[in-house]
Amino acid sequence: MLTTMKNKKYLLTPFIIFLLIIGFSLACGGALSSTLDETVEEYESEAETIQDDSKKFPTIELQIIEGPIYSSVDNICYYKIKANVTGTPFPIVEFSQDDSNGAWGEHIAQINLYNSSEDYKLNATAINSEGTAFSTITLRWGCSEQETEMPEYSTNTNEVMEYFYEIAFGAEYGGIAPLLHKWKDDIRIKVNGIPTGSDLDTLHQVANELNSLLNNTSLKTVDQNQNIDFYFTTVDQFPSIIPSYVQGNLGYFHVWWDSIGYISNGKILIASEGLSQQERSHLIREELTQSLGLMKDSSRYKDSIFFQGWTSTVSYTSIDKDIISLLYDNRLKANMTKDQAREALGIH
Fold first, then answer.
1. CA distances from 10 to 1, 17, 18, 154, 347 (A)
2. What is the CATH number of the domain that holds 61?
3. 190 and 335, same structural domain?
4. Could you give the CA distance from residue 312 to residue 36 in angstroms, rounded to a whole number?
5. What is the distance between the alpha carbons of residues 322 and 68, in angstroms, rounded to a whole number?
6. pLDDT tens-digit series, residues 18-46
């Protein structure tokens, strides 16, 4: 009996130890599992906090960066307004009005005022996934209009006006209606083809002379974003560049204008062969000048750059300078008739 009892005791001991080990393991496992769950929850909470911190509610503040500026071409007073914004994700900006139609970028709007009694309250909104912010600014006419007195001409005023009416209304080719056409934007010229060094010198010289004569419009040469392409090439290439090219011309220009008569872009052709340098220089001056909107020729003055016959003059006469300046008088608008021009200039 006694021995048997001892044997049973020894058999039960390992079993008890086994149960204790299992219980301890389960207890430890539960504790480890609980600790791991807490760690994961804490990590996820921190991750959510970090993610939330990376997103920010938008802010917006409107700033006048240009203006008020008076444009005599359109008789307006305009401002450029920038929206300074912050926020994550970066906000989208919406303006209540932008008269530039986005020309200055998505965060800059242009506002045009059309009379001195007009005010405009510009509203802007910044929007991202976190919310919406608003800003307003009131714009008032603050421009002083430029003088509109008749400029002094180097030649007789009546003579200037008669020559201007002959040259500036309509065009030599194409049956164009006798209306004024002129540039409103600056003229950016890109040179193409095979010009000589003297060609380039002449082009720069003529551009500088015209810059001294034009009001609110300037000329410069550029490598891109041009609105006039100047081609020095052979005559057989002319029709492929300007399909409306009229045969027999060693220099030729063509311009396009918008629905209200302002010239928007153009092309100029100069023959690269069969001309002396002086003749090429003459054609550079003539075609560039006529592309300003002075598109007709005349037999009135032989030394004029607008003379109908073949010449090789390489300078402007006094009356040439006068009618170039007159076309860009602030009072003259595109699509005016001769009668409207007379009325605008106060000439009867």
1. 14, 11, 13, 134, 133
2. 2.60.40.10
3. yes
4. 94
5. 31
6. 545 555 444 445 544 455 455 545 555 55
